[in-house]
Amino acid sequence: MTRFLCTSKPEASSFGPKVQYATQKKWDDLEIRVYPGANGQFTLYEDENDNYDYEKGIYSTITFNWNNARKILTINSRKGTFPGMLEQRKFRIILVSPNNGAGMSTNERNGKTVTYTGKKISVRF
Prior knowledge:
By secondary structure, the protein is an all-beta fold. It is built from no helices and eight strands.
C-alpha cells in the first residue's frame, strides 16, 4: 500500500505493501492519501528493481497533482516504460480529515477507487 501525503506544508511520503523484498508482491493496489490544505505534487517512480537500467532511462513516473481549491486530484499520464511494468493498477484515494484516513491502517471511508491505465484522469472530491 502506498500513501501520498499533501498537507498545508507540501510534503509527500509513500508506504509500500508489507513485503520483505521489492518484488514479493505486485504493487497493483495502491492507497493514496491526500491531506488537504494546500496544492501539492507527488511523483511515483518505478523501475525493474533488480538492475541499473534506470541509469539508461528505463523506468516510469506518474505525477499526481492536488488542487486544493477545486478538491481535484489529477493523476497524469505515465511517462516512460520498463520490462515487467504494470499496465493497469487500482488507486484507492482517501481524502484525509481528523476523523478519516489517519494512522497506518487501511480506511475505505470517504475514498474513491479508480482504475489507472497510464492515461491522465482526474478525481473530484
